[in-house]
TrEMBL record:
It comes from Quiscalus mexicanus (Great-tailed grackle). It comes from the Eukaryota. InterPro entries: BROMI_C, Rab-GAP_TBC_sf. This is BROMI protein. Residues 1-243 form the BROMI C-terminal Rab TBC-like domain. The gene is Tbc1d32.
Amino acid sequence: VLAELIEKFVSHLSESKTDCYFSTGSYKAMDADVKKENLSSVQQLGVEMTVRYGKYLNLLKEDAENGLCFVLKNCEEFLKQQQRTVVSSLCCLQEHYAGYDWFASSIFLIMSGDRERTLIFLQQFSCLLASAFLWLPRLHLSMHLPVTTVEYGIHPVYFCSAHHVEMLLKAELPLVCSAFQMSGFTPSQICLQWITQCFWNYMDWSEICHYIAICIFLGPDYQIYICISLFRHLQQDILKHTEA
C-alpha cells in the first residue's frame, strides 16, 4: 500500500512543472551498460546488509542481490548525467559517492525488491526538492549546486537540515542543547549520521517507512521536525548520560 501511495504521489508531482525543482534528463536503464561497472567494497557490504535485512523482514526473495546491484549501478549512471567535474583530493569529491546509498536501498525494500519499479520511482523522485534532502547521493557533485558549495564537499543536508535542527533545539529542548555543548559534540553530527543512513540501525522498519513517506508527502522540512522529536524522545537518556 505504501509503495503504491508514494508512487502515485511522486508520479503526479513529477508531471507538474511547478513541483519539479530539478531537471531529470533522459535515461534508460540497460543491463548491458551497467554490467561492466563494479561496486566498491563499501557498496558490496551495504548490499549484503540490505539483502539480509530485507529477507529478515520477508520483503525480498533469493535473487534480490542482483536486483539491488542493478538499481545501485543505474542510479550512479543516471545521477552522473547531472554531475560536474571537480579536481580535489577530498575523498568525498571523487567521481563515485563515497558512502552507501541507503535511501535507494530503502525504496528497493519498500518496492519488495522490484528493480524496474524502484528505478522508475527514483528517476521521477529525483526532480522533486525532497530528493535533495532524503537521497544524499542525489546532490553528489551536482550541477544544481553552486561550484563553491560543491568544492567545500559539505552536503546541503548538513548546512540546511542539521543547522535548523540545532537552531530549533535551542528553543525547544534547551537542556538537550546544553548537554551537547558540555559533551563537545554537536547535534548536527548525529543528525547527519541519522539522515545519511536513512535512520537504519536507529529506528524500526515501519518507522523508517513513516519517515520517508512523511517527508515526501509533507515536505523535506519534516526531516528537521523528526530529528527534533527524536531528541525529545531521547531527552531523559541524554541527560542521564550527561550526569554520568
